[in-house]
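Morning F.,

Quick status update on the modeling queue. The single chain you submitted on Monday has been processed. Sequence for confirmation:
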Amino acid sequence: MNLDFGNKVVVITGAGLGIGRAAARMFAKHGAKVAVIDLNEDHARNTVEAIGAEGGTAAYFVADVSQEEQVKNCFRGVLDKWGRVDVLINNAGIYYQGKITDTPLAVWEKVMAVNVRGAYLCAREAVAIMEKQGGGVIINVASEAGLVGIKGQVVYNVSKAALIGLTRSLAVDHAPAIRVNCLCPGTTATPLVEESVRRSGDAEKARRELEQIRPMNRLGLPDEQAAALLFLASHEISYATGAVLCVDGGYTAQ
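Structure tokens below.
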């Protein structure tokens, strides 16, 4: 299988930690020039330094993806540095736990702004660039929570379902030149998840509960999700657009 991304420019949002960071390092190892976008400059810098230490090429851009001008500035910066955008991975996202009666309007709007508006703003910039250069790939990172109703996290569920809808709409609007697919990770052992487990009061019990609800009886690993992103972005699967790939340990198969 040819997973060579030499001379390709890959933009990844939320690449400072977790799945985004694992993806940035993996794409770089396969030859890509990686634009690391993150709200946290220290995290973004750490990702770029890790890529550099591994012999890869990367640069970071600090942005809140829910803010239009910040997103535009990032893409201008990528074009100034490398002149093109071949792959966009909309990975940035935030989480909130609560039923609808426990979710303040301000929180609802914040989660939707980052998770959905952020993906829209980045995709809009990427599509304009990709149309001019003759093609590209966009991958939206949704969640198993976008496919099923997981209790007690209504706004997160809705935001991830919206990303699946955005994927399908972009796919039919911009084929055949631009492929747009969606990855739906299951619960993955990222710093965000580990922190949530620690805050539960009984970390061991909380972790086992997360593991036992899925047939694979464990959490996913960031590198497993990164490998799925690499595959979706590759020419090896060039007939796929509008597709939704679940890498969730069998959770949504139940």
